[in-house]
UniProtKB/TrEMBL annotation:
The keyword Hydrolase does not apply. GO terms for molecular function: zinc ion binding. It comes from the Eukaryota. Keywords: Metal-binding, Zinc, Zinc-finger. Residues 483-526 form the MYND-type domain. InterPro entries: At5g50450/At1g67340-like, Znf_MYND. This is MYND-type domain-containing protein. The keyword Zinc applies.
């Protein structure tokens, strides 16, 4: 059956009636659509005299795909090219003002109100002047005269740029719909980006001291650009990646509280999560690596904010862990379906590194995020990624610059799970998800990360055996203080504890104990723990885990009893020994410190009125000299920093 086709040759469109023959005579046609080759067919022309012959060649689909692939950075390059086009457009405008006219226009008074969809003429005039100034300024040559010109014009420029950015960019919830508004918005973004580049170039081509001098002239500029960047990310403008790469270099110039307020106002954790989801929904060709990298870096800053400074707007969205794991697992697929250059590999290496750091930052928020990461398949994903980067054929320089740090980051992420093994939700998941990766016939058993997973599995079984001993010999895990099993000698070995579904803190060995504890006062305690059960689950380890950790500490104190007795015998009667168990490290680190009457700081939080310090003063008054030590337990999650449950007295004189 004949097939009608068209193709481009020497700026003409040809049509061909193709039967079973390979060589087809082609006649010119001007009305047929442009032919798009399939992945399995390759088309080219040869001439028979003056007649063009269309030759159809069957080729391997994978080889053809490689011909059609694009470099990974084509999307980011297009944004940079557009900024360059705007710059050239301003330079070549026949009616553009001169530099002197542009400087004089900076004295124009801007209106008090702005309409992003219909910019006024005064704003257009001022913006055009700013564009002329930045388009004719070049700091790349390292000329001190250019730096002096920028320093002299910096305050007048910022005096106009700040109200324009606050009036035409910051109020936006989406890009302007009108043609006039969109054009003004694009040019204003160009000006902001170029000025950011100037400030970074001062450090690159002159010195950091001169950069600080210019920044101190207008100290709120970097904070304003951080707001612009977050707003661009909020409205999903991909050009925010060009902003954030430069704002990151100037973050030290932003007051901490100002940055926190900006992150909270623009809902940065949720915004980054939305950006990741949108990019994951795209094809491999349209996957924007630069946008994902900048969103990862932005998220990394937002996720590492200390928990005590976090407002509800900075809380992590529930789906963030599954999204992060999916993003890093997508990287090999994107690279396989493109033609990556060295810079592309560097960008995707940054995505993996900052993605793993975001995951680690979630761990420090709460142990619950570690459990979620394991449920999302973090362990097999890390193994696959580690094997993939170790089998990639890259230059030695790229291997040292990207691949080696990547492998180290994967090991760091795996090591971050180890301190959480003392918590049942994490321990049981590690055992469940690591076992298939260690089977002799596992497809990935040769990956370099597998020995580290084997070590994690062995450590997990060590803790699990200790947990079995605790469960068999000590039923204090039941929150009911009158639990009948506690007084029995023939206690059944395996008791399946359940948590209170309202507070997710209290644990019980049976429904009878739950009812008894509810009547004896838990109904009042349960209400005081707060309305959000899911948030409490993130903040608090269960009573069962709490008792197990204290059980481990008690066993360790018994092994160090002689050492502690010598320490308390040498101390002054007014002094107290604090035995610190740091479970933030693996294996746990034990230290002692002598606290006299002038020592009051045991917590490293930033609270001036820390509740843990109050408790320290209280139990020091209760401590019997040379008999008691104060036990301070540090858990891996930051949410336990000031938790009163982890500071208590231990009697070292009793057997």
């Amino acid at each position: 059956m004949a097939l009608l086709m068209s193709a481009v040759h020497n700026r003409c469109v040809f049509s061909a009636s193709v039967a079973s023959s390979r060589h087809v005579t082609v006649t010119p046609s001007l009305n047929l659509p442009l032919f798009t080759p399939t992945a399995s067919d390759l088309f080219y022309f040869k001439y028979s005299g003056r007649r063009p012959i269309l030759v159809i060649v069957k080729v391997n689909a994978e080889k053809m795909d490689k011909r059609l692939r694009q470099p990974l950075m084509h999307l980011s390059s297009s944004r940079i090219s557009r900024l360059k086009e705007l710059e050239d457009e301003i330079i070549n405008l026949p009616n553009a003002p001169s530099m002197n006219e542009a400087k004089h226009a900076l004295q124009t008074q801007l209106p008090s109100t702005f309409d992003p969809s219909a910019p006024d003429e005064i704003s257009k005039k001022v913006l055009l002047s700013l564009m002329v100034i930045v388009a004719h300024t070049n700091l790349m040559i390292g000329d001190p005269q250019e730096l002096q010109n920028i320093a002299r014009l910096w305050s007048p420029i910022y005096a106009k740029l700040a109200p324009l950015a606050e009036g035409y960019i910051l109020p936006l919830y989406e890009r302007p719909k009108t043609r006039e508004g969109a054009d003004f918005y694009e040019k204003l973004v160009f000006v902001c980006c170029r000025i950011l580049v100037f400030l970074v170039q001062i450090n690159d081509h002159y010195s950091a001291a001169q950069q600080r001098v210019v920044l101190k002239m207008e100290p709120t500029f970097v904070a304003l650009m951080a707001k612009v960047t977050c707003n661009l990310a909020y409205i999903r403008d991909p050009i925010f990646e060009l902003f954030w790469m430069r704002v990151m270099e100037l973050l030290d110039e932003i007051p901490r509280q100002s940055l926190l307020d900006t992150f909270a106002y623009y809902l940065v954790p949720k915004t980054c999560s939305s950006i990741f989801r949108e990019e994951l929904a795209k094809s491999n060709q349209d996957f924007d690596g630069c946008v994902v990298r900048s969103a990862m870096r932005l998220a990394c800053h937002a996720f590492t904010i200390p928990l005590r400074l976090i407002s509800p707007d900075l809380s992590l969205p529930d789906e963030i862990m599954s999204v992060l794991v999916e993003v890093i697992s997508r990287v090999p697929t994107v690279i396989r379906n493109t033609v990556p250059a060295d810079y592309d590999i560097t960008v995707f290496g940054d995505i993996l590194i900052f993605g793993c750091r975001c995951i680690q930052a979630c761990f420090t928020r709460s142990f619950d995020w570690a459990a979620k990461a394991l449920d999302c398949g973090l362990l097999p994903v890390l193994v696959v990624l580690d094997e993939y980067i170790n089998t990639m054929k890259v230059s030695l320089m790229l291997k040292m610059r990207v691949m080696v740090p990547l492998s180290e980051t994967f090991h760091e992420t795996l090591n971050c799970l180890a301190p959480f093994l003392i918590l049942r939700p994490v321990l049981n998941r590690v055992l469940r998800h690591s076992a298939p990766l260690l089977l002799p016939n596992a497809a990935l058993h040769k990956a370099s990360l597998v020995p580290a997973i084997r070590k994690l599995n062995q450590d997990s079984w060590t803790v699990k055996c200790q947990m079995y001993q605790f469960d068999d010999n000590d039923l204090r895990s039941c929150s009911n203080h009158l639990c009948p099993l506690k007084s029995r000698q023939d206690t059944p070995k395996r008791v399946k504890f359940k948590r209170c579904t309202a507070c997710l803190v209290a644990t019980y060995c049976s429904k009878k104990c739950q009812k008894a504890h509810w009547k004896s006062g838990h109904q009042h305690e349960c209400k005081t723990l707060g309305p959000d059960a899911e948030a409490r689950r993130s903040r608090m380890a269960s009573f069962q885990d709490e008792q197990f950790i204290k059980y481990l500490v008690h066993r360790d104190i018994l092994t160090r009893k002689e050492y502690l007795l010598r320490e308390v015998a040498l101390q002054h009667p007014s002094d107290t020994i604090v035995a610190e168990y740091d479970y933030r490290k693996w294996p746990m680190v034990f230290t002692t410190d002598h606290f006299n009457r002038n020592s009051t700081k045991v917590c490293d939080c930033i609270w001036e009125d820390c509740p843990l310090e109050k408790r320290l003063r209280l139990i020091r008054r209760q401590a019997v000299p040379r008999r008691h030590v104060i036990v301070h337990i540090r858990l891996p999650s930051h949410d336990t920093t000031c938790d009163l449950r982890w500071l208590y007295l231990e009697d070292i004189q009793t057997e």
